[in-house]
Design a protein that fits this description.
The chain has 10 helices and 12 strands. The chain is of the alpha+beta class. It has 3 domains: about 45-145, PAS domain (Beta-Lactamase); about 150-230; about 235-385, Heat Shock Protein 90 (2-Layer Sandwich), CATH 3.30.565.10. It has a 5-stranded antiparallel sheet, sandwiched between helices. A hairpin with a 5-residue loop joins strand 4 (about 120-130) and strand 5 (about 140-145). Helix 5 (about 150-195) runs antiparallel to helix 6, helix 7 (about 240-250) packs parallel to helix 8 (about 275-290) and helix 8 packs antiparallel against helix 10.
């Protein structure tokens, strides 16, 4: 019996050692599983397209994923070295609202402008919330930022297209009724001119009325064409030839110096040559009118790379671009959102139908029209057309700063 009691400690030690080995093995297995899960989560976070930032409960940044660094440009250390709170938000009042909301234990979700390291403001969808431990106590904060520049642009373009459709419908109805009145007026003028006893002075006045009436009819014809649109007569078109012809015509006899950058191997496009010529000539004439004392007009064409196409929101097909760049006066920022509206013009004698018609033609060709400008430095119109053989994408025509006299 005494020998048995002497063995008990050894037996307990052996059992304990066995249990330790089992527990240790299980712990290592659970730890490995946890580490694998954590690794997968981190890989997912790092590869996420949304910008994700994590901070401690005091707001000090501790982690940024790749998308966060790409969007804002800050490393964790750089961001923590900037004094103040809400550094990433353009509106500091919004930043304070976000901070107070999550500190009250509630999520904050909304759209607001954020600011990059370079000072650029970017519209973003933001979600901010607390990070809690297993017991529910807050231990940190996180923010998710999604760049919605493209979504905003598409929404604005859709709204603009709807507005143009509504204005076009109204313009078409007015033009139709007005043209009927002009037809009656013109008929009466012609009848009056045929009277044998009409004096020369009256004949002169009737001739002026006839000229004005015919001019008014031409304007209503343009309105009706804008409203209804002519079905494009599609055929293969060589852009270099068309561009040179439009540029030479529009600048002939002016002080404007024209240069061309047109690759000879540029693919053809499927388009209505007459309508496309109308767009190019209108843009060239606008540029010339924006440079009354002379200047430089650079017309370039080329293939659109994948990165640029993606940045412009273009469908993944082969696109060709035509850039019409002038050194004109530019256009005020407050007018930029209206440059494609019918009847809007900055010209003293303009009708406001030129750019609206260009917009409509490009839309019907499945293309896009974009503009960039800086007041006092000039304007560049960007035309995008799918190359021949590429499926035409739905047209999304955008604005941007514009120059040339509209």
């Amino acid at each position: 019996m005494s020998a048995l009691w002497q063995l008990i400690p050894w037996l307990l030690l052996a059992v304990s050692a066995g249990l330790f080995v089992v527990v240790r093995h299980r712990h290592k297995k659970e730890l490995a599983t946890s580490m694998l899960g954590l690794q997968r989560v981190m890989q997912a976070v790092e590869s996420a397209s949304d910008a994700i930032g994590i901070g401690d409960i005091n707001g000090t940044s501790v982690y940024h994923n790749r998308a966060h660094i790409a969007l804002f440009g800050y490393t964790v250390e750089e961001l923590n070295n900037i004094p103040g709170t809400g550094v990433l938000f353009a509106d500091k009042a919004v930043a304070q609202t976000v901070i107070s909301t999550i500190m009250d234990g509630r999520s904050w979700v909304g759209e607001t402008n954020v600011v990059t390291k370079a000072g650029r403001q970017v519209p973003a969808f933001v979600r901010a919330d607390l990070i809690r431990d297993g017991s529910g106590s807050p231990v940190g904060i996180f923010g998710v930022f999604r760049d919605i520049t493209r979504e905003r642009r598409l929404a604005e373009e859709a709204a603009r297209a709807n507005k143009l459709d509504s204005l076009g419908l109204m313009a078409g109805g007015i033009a139709h009724d007005f043209n009927n009145l002009l037809t009656v007026m013109l008929g009466e003028v012609l009848l009056a001119q045929m009277e044998p006893d009409v004096s020369d002075a009256v004949k002169l006045s009737l001739g002026e009325i006839k000229k004005v009436t015919l001019r008014a009819q031409a304007l209503t014809a343009r309105l009706r064409s804008f409203a209804k649109g002519e079905t494009p007569q599609m055929a293969l078109v060589s852009l270099p030839r068309l561009i040179r012809e439009a540029g030479d015509r529009g600048t002939k006899g002016t002080k404007v110096r024209t240069t061309y950058q047109l690759p000879p191997d540029l693919p053809q496009v499927t388009a209505d040559e007459t309508q496309l010529m109308q767009v190019l000539q209108n843009l060239v004439i606008n540029a010339v009118q924006a440079m009354p004392e002379g200047g430089a007009l650079d017309i370039r064409a080329g293939k659109v790379g994948r990165d640029l196409a993606a940045a412009q929101g273009l469908e993944p097909v082969q696109w060709l671009s035509i850039d019409v760049a002038d050194t004109g006066s530019g256009i005020p920022a407050e007018d930029l959102g209206r440059i494609f509206e019918p009847f809007f013009t900055t010209k003293k004698t303009g009708t406001g139908l030129g750019l609206a018609t260009c917009y409509t033609i490009m839309k019907r060709h499945g293309g896009q029209l974009k503009v960039e400008s800086t007041v006092g430095f000039g304007t560049t119109f960007h035309l995008y057309l799918p190359a021949a053989g590429a499926p035409a994408a739905p047209a999304l025509l955008a604005e941007g700063p514009q120059s040339a006299a509209v």
